[in-house]
What we know:
Elements: H1 2-22, H2 30-43, E1 49-52, E2 57-60, H3 67-77, H4 82-111, H5 115-127, H6 129-134, H7 141-162, H8 168-182, H9 187-203, H10 209-223, H11 225-235, H12 243-250, H13 270-278, H14 287-304, H15 306-320, H16 337-356, H17 361-379, H18 384-387, H19 391-417
Antiparallel strand pairs: 1-2
Helix pairs in contact: 1-4, 1-5, 2-3, 4-5, 4-7, 4-19, 5-19, 7-8, 8-10, 9-17, 12-14, 15-17, 16-19
Amino acid sequence: xxxxxxxxxxTLVIKIILLFFLNDNLSMNPDEERNFxxxxxxxxGSGYTIFNPEKxxxxxxxxxxxxSVFVYESLIKLNIKKEFWVIFSLICYLxxxxxxxxxxxxxxLIFLLNDKYALWATITYxxxxxxLIYLGSTISYENFSLSLxxxxxxxxxRSYRQGIIKSDYIIIPVAVSLSCLFRPNIIAVxxxxxxxxxxxxxNHKKFQNTLMVLIVVLFTAVSHLSSLQKNKKLFxxxxxxxxxxxxxxxxxxPTARGGWAGDWQQSGSSYSAFxxxxxxxxxxxxxYEKSVASEKLATKWIIHNPLIDLKLELRKLAIYxxxxxxxxxxxxxxxxxxxxxxxxxxxxxxxxxxxxLKFTVDDWMMLIPVIASIAxxxxxxxxxxxxxxxxxxxxxxxxQFIGHLQxxxxxxxxxxxx
Length: 418
């Protein structure tokens, strides 16, 4: 435990240095900078809009999640500088990441051969390319959500193994709600996760645990009411965002290559040409109408091109497991050896479990983030921000395979000796 504490302190010190070295101007990621502008526009009387320089008009938007817009409005009203919020969010993230390291170590103890492997897995988690640099050293709410996900999965596994503790009835619902509010893309992960959890606790006849799930669902639903009401006033429909329709078409069209298309909004791109040729009066539609039309166009394209789309899905899967990282740092597209080894060992362990049919209930809880993030990539396009939620658990399975190889080697040696 003394070594673990030193590891946490060392990791956090390195993270603080990297965070301020790579973000010396304390600016948020582009999505959140855009949300901050939307908050300013609303307070200035232009509504929840973003300025379109081509049309020279303010256009209603709900492309990204609304909760952070509400937060930024409150900051502006209270005359709190954006930089203070960034520093506060970084402090919260560092504290949560420190806690997640302890929870990750405890999770590793459940799945690995001994505490030595658990420590090595935890070291890998602390210094993994994405958690240390490519997302972990950026000012992104994914960091906040990832730490909470590790903590929550540990608490859920412990709850049906040792019994739920009273504080979890508050901690887990609040943690899940905040994660979903700040990063709506994690809603899919928690949906899969709690469905699996309910099946497990019902099978274990621990019916009291379902009360906690009900609290999570109610608390999360209520926390999103303001966003739903805001978007209803904007577009006449209860939606959390308009992004899904655009993302769906980005992943299913003749110009798609499986990953993020950075030029999709540029008028001269092949994607833009396809959309404008297929959707009548596209530029006259509002953002919600464009999203709905994009979703319909993608569905139609899939129906008419099933084999091409199947190849595209396989390409997305291949991109998902490429040893690359999120494009926040220039070296993101280098083939990182740590990612490569982890992915190979993870897949080896999964194939071994499939061959032996040795999946436990604990395995399903740990694999849900992997399954959910892959499902998101298949549905939309392959993105390393989504794979981020799976990586801590891929690390544990990679070390589990190493432990399995050592165990087999020890058994063979003992057999020879005897």
